[in-house]
TrEMBL record:
<dbReference type="Pfam" id="PF08264">
    <property type="entry name" value="Anticodon_1"/>
</dbReference>
<dbReference type="InterPro" id="IPR015413">
    <property type="entry name" value="Methionyl/Leucyl_tRNA_Synth"/>
</dbReference>
<protein>
    <recommendedName>
        <fullName>leucine--tRNA ligase</fullName>
        <ecNumber>6.1.1.4</ecNumber>
    </recommendedName>
</protein>
<dbReference type="InterPro" id="IPR009008">
    <property type="entry name" value="Val/Leu/Ile-tRNA-synth_edit"/>
</dbReference>
<dbReference type="InterPro" id="IPR025709">
    <property type="entry name" value="Leu_tRNA-synth_edit"/>
</dbReference>
<keyword id="KW-0547">Nucleotide-binding</keyword>
<keyword id="KW-0648">Protein biosynthesis</keyword>
<keyword id="KW-0067">ATP-binding</keyword>
<feature type="domain" description="Methionyl/Leucyl tRNA synthetase">
    <location>
        <begin position="140"/>
        <end position="243"/>
    </location>
</feature>
<feature type="domain" description="Aminoacyl-tRNA synthetase class Ia">
    <location>
        <begin position="717"/>
        <end position="746"/>
    </location>
</feature>
<dbReference type="InterPro" id="IPR002300">
    <property type="entry name" value="aa-tRNA-synth_Ia"/>
</dbReference>
<dbReference type="InterPro" id="IPR002302">
    <property type="entry name" value="Leu-tRNA-ligase"/>
</dbReference>
<comment type="similarity">
    <text>Belongs to the class-I aminoacyl-tRNA synthetase family.</text>
</comment>
<keyword id="KW-0030">Aminoacyl-tRNA synthetase</keyword>
<feature type="domain" description="Aminoacyl-tRNA synthetase class Ia">
    <location>
        <begin position="498"/>
        <end position="660"/>
    </location>
</feature>
<feature type="domain" description="Methionyl/Valyl/Leucyl/Isoleucyl-tRNA synthetase anticodon-binding">
    <location>
        <begin position="803"/>
        <end position="912"/>
    </location>
</feature>
<dbReference type="Pfam" id="PF09334">
    <property type="entry name" value="tRNA-synt_1g"/>
</dbReference>
Amino acid sequence: MHNKKLKEASCFGKLAVGNVWVYGGEEAKNSKGVVKICHFLGLQVDSHEGHIILYKSWPLDYKIVPSQKSRIRSSVSEVQEEQNQKPGVVKRAYPFDEIEPKWQRYWEENRIFRTPDDVDTSKPKYYVLDMFPYPSGAGLHGYNVLHPMGWDAFGLPAEQYAIETGTHPKLTTLRNINRFRSQLKSLGFSYDWDREISTIEPDYYKWTQWIFLQLLKRGLAYQAEVPVNWCPALGTVLANEEVVDGVSERGGHPVIRKPMRQWMLKITAYADRLLEDLDELDWPESIKEMQRNWIGRSEGAEVEFSVLDSDGRETNMKITVYTTRPDTIFGATYLVVAPEYTLLSSIVSAEQRECVEEYQDIASRKSDLERAELQKEKTGVFSGCYAKNPTSGEPIPIWVADYVLGSYGTGAIMAVPAHDARDHEFASKFNIPIKWVVTPNNGSCIESENAYSGEGIIINSSNMEVGLDINGLSSKEAAYKVIEWAEKTGKGKKKVNYKLRDWLFARQRYWGEPIPVIFLEDRGESIPVLETELPLTLPELDDFTPSGTGEPPLSKAVSWVKTIDPSSGKPAMRETNTMPQWAGSCWYYLRFMDPKNSNALVDKAKEKYWSPVDVYVGGAEHAVLHLLYSRFWHKVLYDIGVVSTKEPFKCVINQGIILGEVQFMAYKDTDGNYVSADSADELGEYLQEIIPEERVVKSGEFYVLKDNPNIRLIARAHKMSKSRGNVVNPDDVVSEYGADSLRLYEMFMGPFRDSKTWNTSGIEGVHRFLGRTWRLIVGSPLHHGAFRDGTLVTDEEPTTEQLRALHKCIAKVTEEIEGTRFNTGISAMMEFVNAAYKWDKHPKAIIEAFVLLLSPYAPHIAEELWSRLGHPDSIAYEAFPKADPMYLKESTIVLPVQINGKTRGTIEVEKGCSEEDAFTLASKDEKLSKYLDGKSIKKRIFVPGKILNVILDRQTAKAGSVQ
Ligand code: ANZ
């Protein structure tokens, strides 16, 4: 098969195959010095009787092409494409399974991503805190980068598992941590593992407890009777997530709300600051808005309504309502108190008592969320008692209804059915009068079917007996005047309210931080544990089951519970409630700055240098609780001088969730016939069937059954969940394609912040790209499947074209990193590799810069290539390449070329190119030359930058074979 004409390569990279010299090839000689295997542009080639053999896969799968330069080029591209698409070759497009573990070991042994304890603080810093890969190497050269990882390890699932299996939560948790850690390491994230922390370690929770003591000292931690989810059958308090539709998730037993002593944190004292400081943060607007709504500041008034006795006379009893619309007060035709309103039992009439109590009982089983649902039909009972509207002087009934919450405002409202939708619905149902007191500004359309809840001009609102007339005023002016009147007459005052509630901080659980408080046995008074006694460690327990009395499981650790008050020497009991899981995660970002400090939560100088976190990457599900709780604690720590910034996280980025693979669903009627998804109105009545992908084809915009295109299907991606069976396990993906492919794919799927749909063929695509990159730089596998050492790069100066391609790619990748659109940056790298395949030579300077660009995305392959390019040190410390604007200017244009007025092709020319140069280029062009060769030219029409039209002499044109 070997061609005798095969010449020896005269220099590296230039190779004669058959009678053609090709560049960018390489050779391998057998023991007799005969050239056996040659590579051309990463493809294995051979020659035979004036033909070139291009191997798709050596030795059996090949293509023979005549040895003409142009044919070889196009055939090489074709074979490479086929090679990329061939199943079987797809997997392991390059030896990732050797490269990845090698570099993971190297990073670990050399602590490549470690942030030294004593950094040079004259340099700028960048603190990246995340739960997700973030290419922190990019654009950060010259910075000290802190990129840590730790574990929020207390919590309910481990405890539930302990109750079911008897396995100690610590064991379960440590097992999970180990698994997580090795998973993260196998993905090659650049975490500084020297700073790993875990919230369950006493060295860590010592400081969680210390913060609690500071809160206690400042009156920000207090005890209160608060309703909890109590399940009498299980004898335990349940977390909200353990209660489903009013019954326990386990066992389905009824759950009631029962008041119990709890620790509360006074986050409401920080409500205004939590709200105001949001403005300065570089966070997604949607999260800021959710926090604003959660804090729910509203401005209004508290107004007193006197309760009337059965003869209609005013009593001393008052009901204070909270309203945001004092302008509507003349329209208040009834009052509503929440079922748990404390004064209720003293106002309810004898006749109504029984039905009110029954109503209270039912309401006690509903959560606030259920009660506040707008769509729910309103329920309520009459209290049998009346109050006086202080403005109109009219008696109005007092009702009890669960749409008013005991925990908001004063737990009582003045109901204005004309102007509030809930009140309107309620009044219509119970035949309570509706009085219209606001008209829209144009004065039209009142007394409609629905409430008019907008602002407007006040009507029907004057009573000179009480000295109040607001008719004709705007809502704003009227509200102001009513508040002024109420303050003057002592009937009310201006009031700001927050939806934000104090934070219920106690859990009746074992697996949490013990609350460092003791109670004197005789007086029940609470005394903080001394700071010097911290950490107060969690005692070992073998039995985690609930006590049955509502007492937390820790009460079973009798010898731990019994203690002595060190100051009085009196016997005391330890608090047996523990902290919620939120506690440990409230301040962990501070500990990462100084994880081993045993004297302070964080060293002042280190905190000052590293604070605040520059980018915090996490899921949008943490929009309120975690992000609000940590902001609260941070502000308290700021007030007591522990931290130097008002806010913990300068910038927050939410990564989008990744949905499972698209599933196709067909509808079937009861006889088992398919029904097209577009033809039936009430598809809800049909059965659904999941259709495997092989049976689906795309028809226009829609998906249909392959064997019956009339049946349209529903295509939908769902959140990954065990129950749906659409979970993609990263371990499997890593073993099949490698961590670099997984990382790259996750970023390639779409903009970082958007939700995306997993697609297994998509990962094959990026894997092929890495394979192509590998072959471009290292070459194709040798005949025994292994790869050559080193690379194919050459030492030549790069050409302008190559520099342009590179710098365009650098500019795009850099810009897209800044906008967290990694996907389009990756596309730019793909384009670069495609362009580079067309080059004869691959200068080292160009390839090195490209490998640097790739390194944050696919760090393993990048390290390997970097080391093959002759660098002894890790690529992690290299500067990210910078785009040189000189190469970004588009200096060439594509010029259409016409022959006799017909466009026959295009040429690429310099912008200011002359007519002569354009014509020379056109006549050399492969496609155009056949129209021009041997013809005489009659005329040339050249519009610079627009067109070149060549008019041929008729005679010779006719004589030619083309036209
Ligand atoms: C009279 C009125 C007239 C109201 C009107 C609204 C419109 P925000 O903005 O959320 O603070 N409210 C007060 N306390 C309540 C409670 N515990 N449970 C349920 N609703 C309560 O809303 C304040 C308004 O919600 C208050 O203003 C009150 O109804 C109601 F045309 O008073 B309003």
